[in-house]
Amino acid sequence: MRGPAAFVLSALVLSAPAAAQLAPPEQAITSAVEAGFEDDVALLEAMVNINSGTHNHEGVRAVADLLIPEFEALGFTTEFIDQSHVDRAGHLFARHEGNPGATRILMIGHIDTVFEPTSPFQTFIRDGDTAIGPGVNDNKGGIIVILSALRAMQAAGTLDSANIVVALTGDEEDAGYPIEQSREHLIRTGQWADVALGFEGLAVMEERDMGVVARRSSNNWTLNTTGQSGHSSRIFTDGAGYGAIYEMTRILDAFRRELPEENLTYNVGFMAGGTPAEMGEDNLSATTIGKTNIIPDSAVARGDLRTISQEQTERVAAAMQVIVDNNLTGTDAQISFNFRYPPMSPTDANRALLARLNVINADMGLEQMAEFPPALRGAADISFVAPYTDGLAGMGPNGSGAHAEGESVDLASFIRQAQRAAILMTRLAAEDYPRQEH
């Protein structure tokens, strides 16, 4: 095996300690998580069987209504933040006030799924320690890990001192626009927090749990090229030029050749060219007609841009613009960018959090977690708060098949993930966290 995976796995400590070193309250946490397992699975089933596709506003709100009593029973105050002004249902925030000066912790998840009411994939099915259903991992399973961890802290007496905000967005899979409004409350809470924990799915490589200290951005670009239509026999001449499709091809091939660097991708999702070629109103389709003996007058394409830092985003977008502006004879081109999810860059402070989690792994008798390659993860809501706070992502359960029919989750992973999270938050809540400059 070569490449990033081999490098990451070579850093793992392959032997676990012979004996755990948990304090009595932490031992109580592990026991409480295990004792609550079947209740957690029952709540997961109830959540999954409520359709909460992003655009099913009633369903998103129904899941929030199911969860509100769960948080209030733990001493949290809850608020459902309406987002109808951005054509989304809203977000559920739950707040717990602990000791003044103690670490301020933000737990992030989301209520919505990609499966709308029209999807045939609607029902929770359990087979032993595997569950299948829409959102069973992404992200309703993550919500269960959050609640299981908090219940265990309450049972162990460590929740009272903790300053925690749980932010469950209702549109993570398709954020409302303008995004500055749909993520306003999350960003404001990120500015309050010392530590952010993202409860998207656990990263696993070669059957080993991994730590997520970085996630890449998710942005879109749209490219339009134009040419002078005319008889195909005159193509490539100074008078007729190269046409819109050759200009589109030049640009996309230059992207392929000139832009590659570590942790950068720029997929072309779809394209069309002809006389004319037109983008669909939904920006998810294009139509065209043409003839082989006519120089095409227009071409359109859309793709994404994923980066590891804001600096990389800005630099690569500028390089793409330079390529677009170097037009072939008789053509023109324009590119526009839609910057959606920012990157969660790897930082020393994020790595220090992973090191703290690895101390807990050692105390629990679990293997050490190496850094998961960020190029293998998509974007998530934790990225919106990454500029303001230290963070760890991938704190949710282990699953597979997200965003597709047959999405599944390993129910046994709920236990170790909730235990890890609860012990980490217990230790953080017992101190005045050294806030980093961001």
TrEMBL record:
List the InterPro entries.
ArgE/DapE_CS, Bact_exopeptidase_dim_dom, Peptidase_M20, Peptidase_M20_dimer, Peptidase_M20A
Q: What GO MF terms are annotated?
A: hydrolase activity; metal ion binding
> Which intervals hold domain Peptidase M20 dimerisation?
213-327
Residue ranges of the TM segments? none
Presence of keyword Signal: yes
Keyword Hydrolase on entry = yes
The signal peptide, as residue positions, is 1-20
Q: Which domain of life is it from?
A: Bacteria
State the UniProt keywords alphabetically.
Hydrolase, Metal-binding, Signal, Zinc
**What is the required cofactor set for this protein?**
Zn(2+)
- Which named protein is this? Peptidase M20
